[in-house]
Design brief:
Layout (H helix, E strand, L loop, with lengths): L1 H9 L6 H10 L24 H38 L4 H25 L11 H27 L3
């Protein structure tokens, strides 16, 4: 019985022509059972290129394109930002620093002219806080003295 089943599977009928064309069209037949083509192998000139040759033909142009694109985009964005700043009236840090330095120089010249024209007396004594308070109290009393006199005269007090 086992001999009959093995001989039946071994004596399988060949597939029909339409089945073979269908299998070839959709690559269903395994490679081991596929008939080998009778065409010769491609010549040496048709062999795959080396890694360096492939890099020169595909990789190098891609790298150049990437680097060039980043450079172009960077300069384009920088130019756009400069134009926007100019239209808004904004200035760069270096221009602001230059303006501040010019203002400082002008201010120092004015101060130096004033110092040269006015004599400063560094020997003047600085008042103590108590002395300042005493002086202000005395000034206040002097200022208010006529108020008291007038009030006394109106009320007929001594």
């Amino acid at each position: 019985m086992t001999d009959a089943t093995t001989s039946a599977s071994a004596a399988k009928p060949p597939p029909s022509a339409s089945l073979k064309s269908f299998q070839d069209q959709y690559n269903i037949v395994p490679k081991a059972k596929r008939p080998t083509p009778k065409t010769p192998r491609p010549p040496a000139a048709m062999q795959q290129p080396s890694n360096f040759h492939l890099f020169v033909k595909a990789g190098l142009p891609f790298l150049l394109f990437s680097v060039g694109a980043s450079f172009v985009l960077k300069s384009a964005v920088e130019g756009k930002n400069l134009e926007r700043d100019k239209s808004k009236g904004l200035v760069s840090k270096s221009e602001r620093q230059a303006r501040l330095d010019a203002e400082k120089d002008q201010m120092m010249e004015k101060l130096n002219k004033r110092i040269q024209t006015v004599d400063f007396d560094n020997t003047k004594r600085i008042e103590r806080p108590e002395e300042i308070l005493e002086r202000r109290r005395q000034e206040r009393e002097d200022r208010n003295r006529w108020h008291r006199r007038t009030w006394r005269w109106i009320t007929r007090q001594s």
